[in-house]
Amino acid sequence: MATVGVLWEHEWSKHGVCAASDDSFILNELDYFNVSLEIKLKVNLMRYFTNELALIVPDVVHDPTLPRTEDHICRRCGKQEAVFFQSQTLKAEENMRLYYVCTNVECLHKWTE
What we know:
- 30% of the residues lie in helices and 17% in strands.
- It is an alpha+beta fold and 113 residues long.
- A hairpin with a 7-residue loop joins β2 (82-88) and β3 (96-102).
- Residues 70-112 form the TFIIS-type domain.
């Protein structure tokens, strides 16, 4: 099993040396990882790398307050009924979006249009 030191050495040699240039304030491993941690604290990276559909809980198909549609056929199982709702996307620069969940409990496919 690799030690933490081996991990940091690998990360520096694989990624950090590219960030360290003659005009950079990143001079060594410590600088590189301090800058990385600062960025992590300032930017919610999960917002950009998370699959929004994965965040939808399949149990929404049992919510009686959500509207249903028969106008959107599930591409996975062919069922002609889906629960749908509108939500702001994780990326603030994008508009509201409709999300659909197939009501077939054997399928529960999620999609957006």
